[in-house]
Amino acid sequence: MGTDEKLEKHGDLFVEDVGEPRSIGADLEHDGSPRNVPQASGAEERRYLRKLDAIILPMIALLYFFEYIDRSNIANAKLLGLDKGHDTPNRGVGPGVKALTATQWQMAVMIFYVGLSLLQIPGSIGYRVFSPSKWIAFGVCGWCVVCVLQTTVYNLSGLLACRVFLGAFEGLFGTGIVYYLSLWYHRDELSVRLFWYLGSTAFAGAFGGLIAYGVGHVSSSVPDWKILFVVEGVPGFILGLSCLYWLPDRPKQNSRFKGRQQQIAIQRYERESKETGTGIARKHFVSALGDWKTYAQASIYFTSSTLIASISGFLPSIVQGLGYTSSTSANLMTVPPYAAAFALMFITSYSSDRMKERGYHIAVLSTIAAVMYLCLANLPDGSLSAKYACVCIAVSCVYSTYPPGHAWAANNFGNESKRAIGMGAFTALGNLGSIAGAYFYPSTEAPLYRRGHYVCFAMALCAAVFALGNSLLLQAINRKRDMEFGTVEGEAPDVTELADGHPMFRYIT
Prior knowledge:
disordered N terminus
């Protein structure tokens, strides 16, 4: 492609190959690769990884912490009076002195996921086309502004509008983070790093309950639920602005590293896979959307996301139905399930990376969660302690499928171009399950919610079957490629053209 033709194509979203950015330093080739520099020693690479972890992981963990708080705080806000009538002392969004109906409240929870799903493919493409640090800042600041604007709503329509835009901005941010991390970390390093990102959901759930508990004890003329939205929205906005100056973009572009560590960053990037193109190639766009593996992974995430959405939207109400009748105690008792989930997520992520295995981990956790939901549906009404223990175990197992599930999808899209599209499709399709999950626990079935527990049992069982089936199919493909082309040794294959269709590419199972 000539220079003039490159310039003409540059404005198009689908760029076949516009070349890499100019070199960084005298020791790099024009394409950004190291020029006659020694390979990094184990000690050098460990020092580099520690610095990389210190730069990226705390920031993205904090960002997702605030994203999840701003997403799920509607459940806590309900206990603080958001669903009550606008003409009541709570000044909620219900008509006059009437509270929202169960159906209206479910719509308010569900509509968030519509905005989220619609913007997830564009959001993932944005990480590939624009500088990731700027794209992240845009998404974060956008949803935090919307979170605070929820304090101005006075009816259901206003709440629904805010929830749609909240989901849209979170879709621009959250989907591409997995893709972004895959630029910096190898496939067998990704699940633990995703734990520090996705694990903040469990921490956010626990901390969100504590914040709501504290806000519930504030004496003010302003309704408690409005204070909650402000307290949880403003810090995230400030953090989003700081991304412009803190987060690196790519190993070969604005990496925030210099000298030897810049060389190590590029060596690691090229050791995992070789790729020369930039932008989004049309054939990879088509390949990602036509690949059965995209839909197999999305089916696993779909079933898991129904469970996660039902937990984030209704856990305070479920806990209240167990016997913790006051709103403050119900909010407080949501903390232990999330704390247990945080611990189990780390153990699962570490084990998944060490074993270079995803499917069996997800299948086992989902099966345990299914058993817990079945117990919740059938234990006697007075078994408060036993039911609460089942809630803790179920929440822990469901959330622990999150990091290895996302890492699994990112691992198996062979190059950046296909991964950007594939991860968008994976999360967009998977999050459709979140829309369904918003209807699992209608308030009309309180306090036992037996039907909701049975539905969650079925979803967890499906997740286990889908994960096991996908793992076995990928193992069969790897064995076939080993027989036809030999085992993988030496340098990583150039996946610029074929992505994971390259005969020397092997899937993580």
